[in-house]
Recover the amino acids of this structure.
């Protein structure tokens, strides 16, 4: 699968998981703030995203979350500056968590062979 397709699929998967994590009542106070990390980890693991793809997915997700958030808040809140700052902060939070989690999940860990704690004499 080409890298751009994996990145878009990763962003879509992360966004769906993040929205689903916010939906359950009461539980959304716990899962909501870390939902982008949960979604990013699953997307990074399933799609095996490399470093660049994880970073690009995070930027794409930040735009996908930040732009609509600004539009909605701009319409609902009289203070444009607050709406802009809140949307940027939310976009950085969403994109940052998703990027780090996707990078962590997608990175191939090199396994070190098991070595005994002490060598027999």
């Amino acid at each position: 699968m080409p890298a751009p397709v994996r990145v878009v699929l990763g962003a879509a998967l992360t966004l769906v998981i993040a929205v689903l994590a916010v939906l359950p009542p009461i539980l959304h106070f716990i899962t909501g703030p870390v939902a982008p990390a949960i979604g990013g980890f699953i997307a990074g693991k399933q799609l095996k995203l490399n470093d660049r793809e994880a970073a690009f997915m995070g930027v794409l997700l930040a735009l996908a979350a930040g732009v609509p958030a600004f539009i909605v808040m701009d319409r609902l809140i009289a203070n444009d500056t607050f709406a802009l700052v809140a949307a940027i902060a939310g976009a950085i939070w969403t994109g940052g968590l998703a990027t780090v989690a996707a990078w962590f999940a997608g990175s191939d860990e090199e396994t070190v062979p098991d070595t005994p704690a002490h060598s027999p004499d």
Summary: Residues 80-106 form the longest helix (27 residues).
